[in-house]
Amino acid sequence: MAENMMEDIRLLARNPGIALKTVATARQKVKFYNHLSEIIFNQPYYWLYSIARPNTTLIDIGAFIGDTAAYFAMNPNIDRIIAYEPHPNTFKILSENIKAMPQQISSKITLKNVAITDEKGYVSNNMKEITGTNKTAKSKKGIRSTTLKDELEGISNIAIKSDCEGGEYRIFRNTEDLNNVYAIQMEYHMGYSALEEVLNRGAFNCVHSPDGELGYLTALRG
Q: 158 and which of 6, 108, 181, 196 could share a cystine (Cβ 3.0–4.6 Å)?
């Protein structure tokens, strides 16, 4: 065993890039499971998880590294998750994390390296522009973007989880886009009133917490 260990050390000494990659991968895995454990134990999305209807399609806007997608994939009432993460580097980590999950989890999850916003085409690869409330700058070399309306076309029995660092104000503008959606849970970052107004027009009953700039908003139709 000692000889094998020494050979491994010599290999890493000759190829320091392997060591760095190994450490980076290990840190990514630890971060993923830490986030997943926080989701499971703190239950910030328990409301949406608990009211999921049979044969639900869960739209995960702002999938980050995959913790919420994996969490919702554990729900037997949720048939599939479509997870959106715009940032290319984060998307790569997301893909690796989901691929490493048990097959009964990973097989439910479809990943899309796309920004959901109010325009179809491309947006700047500046993350502040992707997620902020200001108009995004178009860029042919930027990140591909799509709209919620286009992504939900042809899908029924939909629930949405959204955490996109301010992008929600551009995504949730039209009640017609939500005709096949029965529940939404989102994190809001600059107040809830504009979001609540749109969702109320779409016959959603909304609850927000707390009163302030940052919090969660839940919306249930009917």
A: 181
How many CB atoms within 10 Å of residue 45?
Answer: 19
Confidence category of residue 105, pLDDT binned at 50, 70, 90: very high
Q: Which residue range is the domain that position 2 belongs to?
A: 1-42
Instruction: Give SS3 for 51.
Output: coil
- Cα–Cα distances in angstroms (integers) from residue 131 to residues 75, 145, 151, 159, in the given order: 29, 12, 18, 21
Burial of 32 (C-beta count, 10 Å sphere; 0-12/13-18/19+): buried
Residues 80 and 189 in one domain: yes
pLDDT per residue over 160-191, tens digit each? 999 998 899 999 999 999 999 999 999 999 99
What pLDDT, on the 0 to 100 scale, is given for residue 129?
46
